[in-house]
Amino acid sequence: MLKFIKGHMESITGIEIYPLISLLIFFIFFVTLFYWVFTAKKDYISKVSNLPLDNQNDTLS
Fold it and tell me: What is the DSSP letter of 61?
């Protein structure tokens, strides 16, 4: 089955750019995510991490 897919894909012109584009999107997304995580303020991280605990107390009342 893989031979059929590979042979079909080789017949399409210009398809070799799609894996490169998907790799770039993946790489840019995770580099941006790592940058945001390392530059996030500690107050914001602690506020967001406590949200599930605060929300749980509201639903039990």
Answer: -
Domain count, the chain: 1
Residue 58 has pLDDT above 60, yes or no: no
50 token code pair: 């406590």
Q: Which domain holds residue 56?
A: 2-60
Q: Which residues are CB-neighbours of 44 under 8 A, at least 6 positions away?
A: none
| 9: CB partners within 8 A, 6+ apart | 15
pTM (whole model) above 0.90:
no
Q: 9 with 15: CB under 8 angstroms? A: yes
